[in-house]
Design brief:
extended, alpha/beta, Nucleotidyltransferase, domain 5
């Protein structure tokens, strides 16, 4: 089997073909559309596995390539980090990356609906755009009257209010021209909405799933048809909770080790269905006691949690709709209380266990606080006792020891020792030692030194001979 990666553009496409051994055997840039690409791949004999990213018109490419390939995979562009995070990104490298990921079956594939379902989705999106345009025109008309301070009827778009609007005339020609243009645009937008709505009603009557979902309180034909059109095949979702991630109603997550941070909802998937689900949730809360009880339980009587509770309710309705499309069971209002008694019993046990844990934690906290308080009291008592003892000892020392030192020892030192030092030692030093040094030592030195060895002249040899004879 040959694995082919195609980087598709409006005027040209880059393709890369690798064999089962992972060797690149062809690179090419083909100018043109689906017909030219199919002709470039016709030379390969054998099975083809073609992969490309989902973009505008991916359904047309899928149908054209399915005629020449055994398997066609449409990859999710937002999950291909090897491509959009690459430091060297170009068409040739993107095509090769798609081919190699297809070879190891590591592409994040998306569901490709049939042609009629794709047209159904486009029609639903077109109606929402037409309704938004009609709303902008109505707001412009109200702003025109409010700017001039003119009071308008409460129901300005139907009945007597619409008749008043068509019959009103401004004194200024420019303002009247502006109003006439608004009225013409409003008529065109309403006609467009009515035309699309009629076609959608015709499609919805032919689909049993739309009628099934309308048994839910607050779910109308527009919300039901949008959910059915985008789910397409209910059994492609292995679990019912996957539908929340598909419609972008689950919170984003940033978890690492023991830290788990949940942020805003991901907002993935079709925004048209997400908006309709949130709007329908308000009606379901007003009309269904089970949905209202769930909403109030999540809100916890906290106005700041109203939006979170509303999104959680929309997520719950999406899961219920998927389960109903799989099973074919209609909505029962009492299922909020009796559908899953075992699950509700487990949740009640969890809540009771959480309360017990909270009580134990509060009791443990109180015990710790009491222990810390008693420890602080004992510390304060010991500090006071130590301070009292030190105060008593200081008082005793100040009354006994300092008096003795001040009356006896200082007096003795001041009267006896200083006197002895002043009368004896200085006198001895001044009378004896200085006198001895001045009278004896200088006199001895001056009298004995000159008489030790008087100076003599050297003897002659004759005298030395006479001295020798005398000795003999």
């Amino acid at each position: 089997m040959y694995h082919v990666g195609i980087d598709i553009h409006s005027k040209q496409s880059s393709l890369c073909v690798i064999n089962r051994n992972g060797e690149c055997i062809k690179r090419a840039t083909v100018r043109g559309g689906t017909r030219e690409v199919c002709q470039a791949l016709a030379e390969f004999e054998g099975d083809l596995h073609i992969a490309f990213e989902a973009s505008l018109g991916y359904g047309r490419w899928f149908e054209a390539l399915s005629k020449i390939a055994k398997r066609v995979t449409v990859a999710h562009p937002g999950q291909l980090r090897l491509i959009f995070r690459s430091k060297k990104k170009n068409d040739r490298n993107d095509a090769e990356t798609l081919a190699r990921l297809a070879a190891v079956d590591a592409l994040p594939a998306v569901h490709v609906p049939q042609l009629d379902v794709r047209h159904w989705r486009k029609l639903i999106t077109s109606r929402q755009k037409a309704v938004s345009a009609r709303t902008r025109i109505k707001n412009g008309i109200r702003a025109l009257f409010r700017e001039e301070g003119i009071a308008t009827p409460r129901t300005l778009w139907i009945g007597k209010g619409r008749a008043w609007l068509n019959a009103y005339r401004f004194d200024d020609e420019m303002q009247q021209l502006d109003l006439d243009e608004f009225l013409l645009s409003l008529a065109e937008a309403e006609a467009r909405v009515d035309r699309i709505t009629a076609r959608l009603d015709q499609i919805a009557r032919a689909h049993p799933g739309v009628a099934l979902l309308q048994t839910i309180p607050g779910i109308g034909p527009r919300t039901a048809e949008a959910v059915v059109a985008w789910i397409d095949k209910p059994h492609r979702f292995v679990k019912n909770n996957r539908i929340g991630a598909y419609f972008g109603l689950v919170p984003s997550q940033d978890a690492s080790a023991d830290r788990n941070r949940l942020g805003r909802i991901t907002c993935d998937g079709p925004s048209a269905v997400r908006h309709l689900l949130v709007e329908a949730s308000w009606q379901a809360i007003r009309r269904s006691p089970a949905v209202r009880a769930r909403f109030e339980r999540i809100m916890r009587d906290d106005p700041l949690r109203k939006k979170k509770a509303l999104v959680a309710t929309a997520h719950h309705l999406a899961r219920v709709m998927l389960a109903m499309l799989k099973s074919g069971e209609v909505w029962r209002d009492e299922m909020g209380d009796d559908l899953q008694p075992a699950k509700r019993a487990r949740s009640s046990r969890r809540r009771s266990s959480r309360k017990q844990i909270a009580r134990r934690a509060s009791k443990r906290t109180n015990d710790q606080a009491q222990t810390e308080t008693s420890a602080e009291d004992s510390t304060q008592r010991s500090t006071k006792q130590t301070a009292t003892r030190s105060t008593k000892q200081t008082a005793t020392r100040s009354t006994q020891q300092p008096a003795t030192r001040s009356t006896q020892q200082p007096a003795t030192r001041s009267t006896q020792q200083p006197a002895m030092r002043s009368t004896q030692q200085p006198a001895m030093r001044s009378t004896k030692q200085p006198a001895t040094r001045s009278t004896k030592q200088p006199a001895t030195r001056s009298t004995t030194r000159p008489t030790k060895r008087p100076a003599t002249r050297p003897k002659s040899p004759k005298e030395n001979h006479q001295n020798k004879q005398t000795r003999v």
